[in-house]
Amino acid sequence: MDTLENQANRLYDQQKYPEALDIYLSLLKKYPKAEKYSMYCGNCFDAIGQTGEAARYYKKASKLNPVSPNALLALSNLYYQREDYANAEKFAHMVLQKFKNDTSALLILGNCAYCKADFETALSFYEKVCAINPSSYIGLINMANTSFDLGKYVKAIDFAFKALEIYPASVDAYIIAGNSYMELSKTEKAEKNLLKALNFKSDNPWIYNSLSRLYQKAEDWENALNFGWKAVLFAGDAADDQHINFGYLLYECIDEKKSDLALEYARKWLEAFEKNKLVAYMANSILEDKKIKTAEPEYLVRIFDTFATDFDETLHGLEYLVPQHIAEMVQKHHKKEFFKRINCLDLGCGTGLCAQMIKDMIGWSAITGVDLSPKMLEKARQKGVYNHLEQAEIVNFLNTTDKTYQLVVAGDVLTYFGDLKPLFEGVAKVLSLGGLFVFSICENNLNKDDYCITPAARFVHSTNYILKQLKKRGYNKLDMIYKPLRNEGDKVVYGYIFAAQKVMIVEK
């Protein structure tokens, strides 16, 4: 028995999980009441990704030894890794019913609360961990991180330094301290702590990213771009968040009249990641490549998936007014008595901000939302304002659907299309005669072109171009109002809200 078990343990340590599992299963068959073999089997199944089988063996181990927390903790952690926080919490609480001071269970509960963005609850669990074990590095570093997310920067620094007393080489502690000092505008202390983190972990892209933000705040654009560039190099091709950050950094650099420096890095970025579609679109936007006719769909999916979690809060902070303007235009021109039933199509629906605003004013209706980003659609689904949601590219959806709509809205959507002919034709195809099309555009005050791409990776359009396209596609312009759309830094972005009615069918 000892020889077989040792052999299995060696295989497990060598990460040869299937081979180790075969031995553990044979030992469990021979000794069915041995808790440890059930645990070993659960660990192996977990390691090879068969979490359902892992849970089954952990539950068996728990029945074999009800007074041990090991199996329950393994189950709790298994569900936590699967983002099944309800079951993770359930098994963690079962541990605490028997062992009220079990810090592992408390940590899992804190982590579940943190992942659900319930930071106050998370902090309370981490505090309990540290009350039981004041030298718990994990408890202290989690308290530091959670305090930072709560905006309690002084406390975050205090907990980070307490964590450093236990583990002086803690990269996370130096990062949290550095970022907290940055938020408190203590530039020298922020720089000192972030550079210390870099000494311990010179390939961590997030340290370079934090230093880039620090230098950007100080308007030291050479260092900001240098460290931002290192962040994307160390992060690699698949790190969307780092590439998005770098793209915005280049845009803001141009906005601060440092165009030559930004363009130099945009070219380097494009050359280094030539096959990355997100990079290609953002870099070519910085370079204002006139060949770009529409936003790259892969760019849209990746950027909006990245921003979905905090999207509504971010737009609120930008004083984003497009949904309100769209709703006002719908209320002004939508005639309830014109159609017995209204089917509304919300193009590029995002998290459902426009649908929320117009839901109550369009009477007996069904609203369909279309968007490319699955994470944005999930947020929209949670609001309960849509009858149907579709993940699709907008023009492709318009050209393939067999449904008709009496109202089509597109809030802040045309900004990702330069050439509007395919979109306007698609809307005309699905819009009933007499139906209403309400949309926003960003004003082109940069040149005399019909449209152009900006360094912000958005398109701006001339009103003459919009009016010509509407007329050609069988629409009659009902209204066109100049409005502030959102803030961008210390500037207000203006644009137009259009209302158009389909008055004729135009053959292609």
Give a description of the structure.
There is one protein chain. With 508 residues, the protein is α/β, with parallel strands linked by helices. The protein has a domain at 309-502: Rossmann fold, CATH 3.40.50. Helix content is 59%, strand content 13%. A hairpin with a 5-residue loop joins strand 6 (451-453) and strand 7 (459-461). The longest helix is centred in the middle third of the chain and has 16 residues, at 240-255. The mean pLDDT is 92.
Any key phrases for this structure?
508 residues, alpha/beta, Rossmann fold, two-stranded antiparallel sheet, 25 helices
Instruction: Give the overall shape, derived from the CA principal axes.
Output: globular
Number of strands: 9
Would you tell me which CATH topology of the domain at 309-502 applies? Answer: Rossmann fold
What's the average pLDDT? 92
Quaternary class: single chain
- First-last Cα distance: 79 Å
